[in-house]
Specification:
With 339 residues, this protein is of the alpha/beta class. The protein is built from 14 helices and twelve strands. Helix 2 crosses helix 10 and helix 11 crosses helix 12. It is globular and about 60 Å long.
Length: 339
């Protein structure tokens, strides 16, 4: 695989620099000690990127569900997935929102001690690949330049899709761009192919008449699941805060079911898209409720149990040379906060 960074793209760290430089970055930035909360309001700082799966979080924030649980949550929105993964590895945030399957495996591979406490969403069309009409099939990707965030969810999804038609990363040239920039580059006509996710996926698809979504995650329903993850030291020091967070998110999911128009309007405002656009994009993801989360996190006999796709992703990343061995992913699943 070859990589190219053009001047019209924002500069991002490449996966190799990211993975190789994490240890040094942790030394340079230092490790923030985890301090147990006092009897006053509990606090946490989380990291994430712009993604429609944040809908329950924004509802909980706006409706005061976190405050009801005596919890103050600060969310830092990063420009790229690899940026918040780097911050989590360096202990600059307490947890991640929308930590996707591939990132969960990479974090484990890099020695991060964390736990998955709740499943945020399962992508069933919310992630996808845009292609010009001149690209008639996935096989036509060979020899093409593709905009995708190197080392991010769009990159790993792209590699899985290429595998279906007998191609590898060596058959394309990656133009390194985060999800929003990749979509904008495709929309502007700077690239023929881009891997991105909602809301950028649908926006670029609607704005660019010469093209379509050639492949989306509905065709690979177990490939992309997003999690709420927390640093293990933070959990040990502040279990009440994590319990409060989970309760607020579950309450937000219930509110989305019973007050859908208001809930979507709240999240759409935070995501800076129209309620109509968000409602359409939400059709491309599944937001598991508490009962489904119990199946996914606490029932090894269930077809929904997340260890299966986590291990499958780990094996895929080993086959692609992204990691050397399959981590013990079972040790990163913590269902006690939803029981």
């Amino acid at each position: 695989m070859t990589y190219n960074n053009n001047s019209w793209l924002f500069s991002r760290r490449t996966a190799i620099k990211f993975l190789a430089g994490v240890a040094g970055g942790m030394i340079l930035h230092g490790q923030n000690p985890v301090v147990a909360q006092s009897s006053s309001q509990m606090k946490m700082t989380l990291g994430g990127v712009t993604w429609i799966g944040l809908t329950p979080f924004y509802i909980a924030q706006e409706k005061g569900f976190f405050a009801d649980e005596n919890l103050e949550v600060k969310l830092q929105i990063f420009g790229a997935n690899t940026d918040y993964v780097s911050a989590f590895l360096a202990n600059r945030i307490d947890g991640c929102i929308s930590c996707v399957t591939s990132e969960a495996v990479v974090l484990a591979d890099k020695g991060k001690d964390y736990k998955i406490v709740l499943v945020q969403d399962n992508s069933a069309g919310g992630d996808g690949i845009l292609a010009r009409n001149s690209i008639t099939s996935l096989a036509d990707f060979k020899g093409k330049k593709v905009a995708a965030e190197q080392g991010g969810v769009g990159h790993f999804f792209l590699l899985q899709v290429l595998k279906e038609v007998g191609l590898t990363g060596n058959d394309i040239t990656i133009i390194n761009a985060d999800a929003s920039t990749a979509a904008a580059a495709y929309q502007a006509g700077n690239v023929e192919i881009a891997s991105t996710y909602a809301p950028f996926l649908s926006q670029a698809n609607e704005a660019q008449p010469d093209g379509r979504i050639i492949y989306d995650s509905s065709k690979m329903p177990t490939a992309i699941t997003d999690f709420y993850t927390f640093d293990s030291k933070y959990i040990d020091a502040n279990p009440e805060a994590v319990t409060a967070f989970v309760k607020a998110i579950v309450k937000a999911l219930d509110f989305l079911e019973t007050n859908r128009d208001e809930a979507i309007a709240i999240a759409a405002g935070k995501l800076e898209i129209t309620p109509e656009a968000l409602a359409a994009d939400l059709e491309g993801i599944e937001l598991p409720d508490l009962e489904t989360n119990l199946e996914m996190l606490a029932n090894p006999n269930s077809d929904l149990y997340i260890l299966k796709p986590l291990n499958a992703m780990a094996e895929f990343l080993v086959s692609q040379g992204q990691i050397k061995t399959v981590p013990d992913m079972a040790s990163f699943i913590e269902p006690k906060f939803i029981r």
